[in-house]
């Protein structure tokens, strides 16, 4: 995982520059006021600080849709250029107007970095350490602030500190960031797949994962482009063909049409997935029903997505642990391709492999009755499908394939292995204990014609096996053992209607160049209508609300109050006794406050993929509430100065440490995880716009609130918002640790569908 870690560190430098900029303007504004005589113009002074926020808000409005069109990497390059240009203009700045322009340009760079760095890291990081890597922007931002405060403090010790140099030095690290984005950072493989650029995506994934075998993840990225509106939960028993059907129950209830044959990398090795009819999955399928029918009022109000994801986490003790391997599957340790890869024609170009996203829900992959008869008699015993991916390189020529003799009664996988010299695709583990598979489904339509289609399955083990199985990942390697698994089943995006079973077809692309052109045209602009899909709408509500609640949770008010608290604690007197000027002491205090955050962020990085995002929020928000309550008491109840200083200082320190562990980084992490690839940039832009508007609203409302209700009233309001945030997180925010991004949105789709089905029943 070294490649993914280094890429995340390089991308997070954009947030380091944001923290650097925040600290430098806080220190430089002291000297800017003196040079331009702004002591009597507080509006201009406030505008100097706020212009950067305004620029970030403006650019955020466009950043997401543009990133969906041109890619993530070009936008990060643009961010570094804007940082560099803003630093140079601030270094020059002969007047207030030029300085305001420089701050606006700098704000553009800040907005791009804050919006797109979490998205970029989420799309390149493996699921097992995605939370850790996505906490890096919080850490680098705080480190940038601390380093900048140290630099400014050193400069204030001189006789004539230059505010232009304080601000302009930002251009130096910006150059380093520009070099990294241009020369080192790759494009997001998920974005490349969404544009049909499979060859580039595969090469980048191999670099990021440090291995040649990225077949499963490549297939996952393509399948993740589907809408998922038809996703359902099914339960299966998996194991050798002799054991799975018997384990599922009465054979009369499980005909061959319910079976899915899975072939392993060894010739002749196969498993059978037998669907359990008449029952929903023992964990996933029943989770929503249980939440709606029993339990406390809060349990009944809990979002089905929260219940579903929690039920999976209860059954995946190893997932989400940093360092866990994402290569294989915990379900199928020896399982290779579910579907063999037919030989490619001489002009096959893996670049021309666009996902099958131009099919309507009712226009699935159909076979006529005659075709189905040719396809192994309609039963799923011979799942030889042509695969539209870049996972396997087949070197056999048509001539060799045509002359290969096939033994009587040999399976399609055996025939294919004979054709290709025994070469098969690799395992389809997609991380977090999930396995990607496909199945063939058939049904008889109203016209009496039997039709079939390919369904994509995200499989996850659901507890121990029975009848001799021990339930662990090695159980399938011994005859007669099996496991239960839940599957998220939806229409496949990887296969078209021309794919046949039991034959040796060529890639199902009638006109690849035209198909690629159609896909590029379809993806050339933002898909606003997809925001209305139930799953996307549900995820967007969660992302927007968590951003609003974060901004009004009190961090700006506590930062505003910190210098006063530390002054009451005697820190200013102590620093003055050391011979420091008032300006130097103020900057040093701010630097020490920032330093307190770094160990807490480091702890959060370790816990993000162990305890999880939701758990950290549920543990840290109550501490935020308690800290604010102590600050309220300290400002309302008469007490000795020393006691007041101790209580206030301790509360501020605890508040900062808990905020940067939970409510600081997690909203951005969640927003980068819960949206589908095709509209991720657009959705993250909406959430980031909410963030910046909330930041502006809180910043400008704080002085008004202080005058109207006093400091204790302000803290009381923030404590109330934190209480609302705690309730919202408990009811609406799911746990996403260890899940592939494409699986997370499927749960939002299922949750939206489940609730829509329950509402008519409740009425």
UniProtKB/TrEMBL annotation:
Annotated transmembrane regions? 43-62, 74-92, 98-121, 133-157, 163-185, 582-604, 616-637, 643-670, 682-702, 708-731
Record keywords, A-Z:
Membrane, Transmembrane, Transmembrane helix, Transport
Q: Where is the composition biased (Acidic residues)?
A: 348-372
Please name the SUPFAM superfamilies in this protein's record: MFS general substrate transporter (SSF103473)
- What is the topology of this protein in the membrane according to its UniProt annotation? Multi-pass membrane protein
The primary location reported for this protein is membrane
Tell me what this protein is called: Major facilitator superfamily (MFS) profile domain-containing protein
Q: Which organism is it from?
A: Miscanthus lutarioriparius
